[in-house]
Design brief:
With about 80 residues, the chain is mostly helical. It is built from three helices and no strands. The longest helix is centred in the first third of the chain and has 20 residues.
Length: about 80
């Protein structure tokens, strides 16, 4: 599987977080559509199927993350 560059993942996480705040405040269909697009891109970039898993996987791939710590992934 191809791995997204950490800079790309950082940008996608920031976009998703910003859009989530905008959606909570104004909830317009355009914001929701963009949020869905960014969520899909994060899922593809991390090889996951849902946004929560994508966010965890993306954050684990960022510099400074502790890749040996998988405590967030165990249920």
């Amino acid at each position: 599987m191809l791995m997204a560059h950490p800079a790309v993942l950082t940008n996608l996480i920031e976009q998703y977080d910003t859009l989530r705040i905008l959606h909570a405040e104004n909830g317009g269909p355009e914001v929701r559509r963009r949020m869905d697009d960014v969520a899909y891109t994060l899922c593809v970039a991390t090889g996951t199927r849902d946004i929560d898993a994508a966010l965890v996987a993306a954050r684990h791939r960022l510099p400074g993350a502790r890749p040996q710590d998988d405590s967030l992934l165990t249920a």
